[in-house]
Amino acid sequence: IGRHFGDLAKIRHVINYSISPFEKRAFPNYFSKGIPNVWRPFITSIFKVAPLMVLMYLTYTWGNYEDVTLYEHYCLLSAM
Fold first, then answer.
1. Where would one find the signal peptide in this protein (predicted)?
2. CA gyration radius, the chain
3. How confident is the model at residue 80 (pLDDT cuts 50, 70, 90)?
4. Whole-Å CA distances, 30 to 6, 20, 26
5. Among 17, 29, 31, 49, which one is least packed by beta carbons within 10 Å?
6. What is the DSSP string of 37-79?
7. pTM of the full structure
């Protein structure tokens, strides 16, 4: 009872079922069911998420452009 690594103690009234790793399938129905089940929610949510991400990207690029132009403007003013 639990003397060696991997030997679990015997517990009464608990039944464990297992299947051999050689009988398992690693990716059952991956292409036939897995990809379509991911694709459908992705397509429905892309129309909700994409406009916000485009807006965030445009705001980010505009902010970086404004930062550079204001920095150059203030550098020119301070050099005078």
1. none
2. 30
3. low
4. 32, 21, 9
5. 17
6. HHHHHHHHHHHHHHHHHHHHHHHHHHHHHHHHHHHHHHHHHHH
7. 0.47
Instruction: Say if CB 38 and CB 30 are below 8 A apart.
Output: no
- Kindly state the average pLDDT of the residues 12-19: 78
Tokens of 24: 């398992």
Q: Which residues contact 7 (CB under 8 A, 6 or more apart)?
A: 1
Q: Which two tokens stand for residue 66?
A: 């404004």
Tens of pLDDT, residues 38-70:
888 999 999 999 999 999 999 999 988 888 887
State the Cα–Cα distance between residues 32 and 77, nearest whole angstrom: 65
Q: What is the pLDDT of residue 6?
A: 67
